[in-house]
């Protein structure tokens, strides 16, 4: 599953290139609880096709009724060549209930009618090439300009202009194509990450069964270099084999990746850190960004549960959420005096 913004923009581009009328809705303000965050976008075609979302479904139904049903067809025609419009939902308690908004929630959308197919195409091309991009909308005449962005930014809106920043897909690089990697890759794909899996071992790589993930046979450290990790990248070592994991993690630590981690028990993670200090010229300071044991403490034992644990931590870090210490695997196990057994240390994919 690809990045949702790219999916919406690509659908809008295709509809407009085919000569269809379409509407682009952007969440620009929220008050109280909101089903979708500011900056979320949705595309609506004249035949009622919807891509993306701005709520749990009821607001989408209202927009469809306004702009695609036969009785409302003239409304879309009348606004197609006009300036963008603001619309609020959930202003009153009755409206909040009608549109399925949480108690006290209010949502404001900007509606753009028949966005330019050429500009949409240029934006999609930039995002597919990995370019962070500002999309600026002049609210007086709906003129849209694109600008290369150097850093992510929150949506900004005024009476005259909207600026929404679209970034390339978040990317996940997994070192190791074992069973745990398949579960983790599946979850990452559903969360909108582009997933690359690297494993030079044919016996693991040959059994890979997750569609949508790119699978490579190159050595992990070379793969990390070629991957060019940025601030929207995470790298997780899953092989439990120092020959594959350590050098790859060393290269990852030179990058801006927002999450770098490795599977393994507390004992194995401590051994890894010591190896990297003793033999790879690392220090405690240089290893600060290396996470391990990875994941949050949910008592996970099986590969799918461990994948949930790891994906949860990745998403928390991505979203800037500080997790409490009682969710840290090593801290909880140390506090509860949970000892890692020899069997735990020998498992390739199932330990943390």
Automatic annotation (TrEMBL):
Record's protein name: Xanthine dehydrogenase accessory factor
Occurrences of domain XdhC Rossmann (ranges): 172-314
XdhC- CoxI domain span: 15-74
InterPro entries: MoCofactor_Util/Proc, XdhC_CoxI, XdhC_Rossmann_dom
Coiled coil stretches, renumbered: none
Entries under Gene3D superfamilies matching the protein: NAD(P)-binding Rossmann-like Domain
PANTHER family from the UniProt entry: ALDEHYDE OXIDOREDUCTASE MOLYBDENUM COFACTOR ASSEMBLY PROTEIN, MOLYBDENUM COFACTOR INSERTION CHAPERONE PAOD
């Amino acid at each position: 599953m690809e990045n949702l913004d790219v999916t919406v923009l690509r659908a809008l581009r295709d509809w407009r290139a085919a000569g269809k009328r379409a509407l682009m809705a952007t969440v620009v303000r929220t008050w109280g609880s909101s089903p979708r965050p500011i900056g979320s976008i949705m595309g609506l075609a004249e035949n009622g096709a919807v891509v993306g979302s701005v709520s749990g479904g009821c607001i989408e139904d209202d927009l469809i009724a306004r702009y695609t049903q036969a009785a409302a067809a003239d409304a879309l025609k009348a606004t197609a060549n006009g300036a963008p419009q603001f619309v609020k939902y959930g202003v009153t308690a009755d409206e909040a209930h009608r549109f399925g908004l949480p108690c006290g929630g209010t949502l404001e959308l900007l509606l753009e009618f028949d966005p330019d197919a050429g500009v949409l195409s240029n934006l999609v091309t930039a995002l597919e090439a990995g370019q962070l991009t500002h999309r600026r909308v002049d609210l007086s005449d709906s003129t849209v300009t694109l600008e290369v962005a150097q850093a992510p930014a929150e949506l900004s809106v005024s009476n005259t202009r909207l600026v929404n920043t679209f970034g390339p897909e978040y990317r996940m690089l997994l070192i190791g194509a074992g069973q745990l990697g398949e579960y983790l890759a599946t979850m990452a794909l559903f969360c909108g990450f582009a997933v690359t899996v690297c494993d030079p071992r044919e016996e693991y790589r040959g059994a890979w069964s997750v569609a949508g993930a790119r699978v490579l046979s190159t050595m992990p450290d070379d793969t990390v270099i070629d991957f060019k990790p940025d601030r929207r990248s995470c790298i997780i070592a899953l092989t439990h084999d120092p020959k594959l994991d350590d050098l790859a993690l060393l290269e990852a630590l030179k990058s801006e990746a927002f999450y770098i981690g490795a599977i393994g028990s507390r004992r194995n993670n401590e051994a890894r850190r010591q190896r990297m200090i003793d033999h790879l010229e690392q220090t405690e300071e240089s290893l600060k960004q290396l996470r391990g044991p990875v994941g949050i403490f949910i008592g996970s034992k099986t590969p799918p549960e461990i994948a949930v644990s790891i994906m949860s931590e990745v998403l928390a870090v991505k979203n800037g959420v500080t997790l409490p210490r009682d969710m840290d695997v090593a801290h909880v196990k140390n506090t509860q005096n949970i000892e890692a057994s020899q069997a735990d240390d020998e498992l390739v994919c199932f330990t943390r």
